[in-house]
Amino acid sequence: MSKGAQIMSGTTTVVFLLMDLVSLVEESKHLHNRAKAESTEELRQQTQELDRVLEKFTQIHEMLQQGLTL
């Protein structure tokens, strides 16, 4: 293989490696953002569940308070 062909082959390899690297970084960013969104949704669901439990405890507390004052 001539020196020019070796240089061209090496250059082509570097270009494709750089393209793969850019693609990998973009995919990594996408996965990170999606993970944040999923984590946010899970936290939102947990918050809603805790709100429901708090509401039940508040109702029980109010009922007990009424029972004590009667």
TrEMBL record:
InterPro entries: ApoL (IPR008405). One of its GO terms (molecular function) is lipid binding. Keywords: Signal. The keyword Isomerase does not apply. One of its GO terms (cellular component) is membrane. One of its GO terms (biological process) is lipoprotein metabolic process. Residues 1-27 form the signal peptide. The keyword Transcription does not apply. Belongs to the apolipoprotein L family. This is Uncharacterized protein. It comes from Diceros bicornis minor (South-central black rhinoceros).
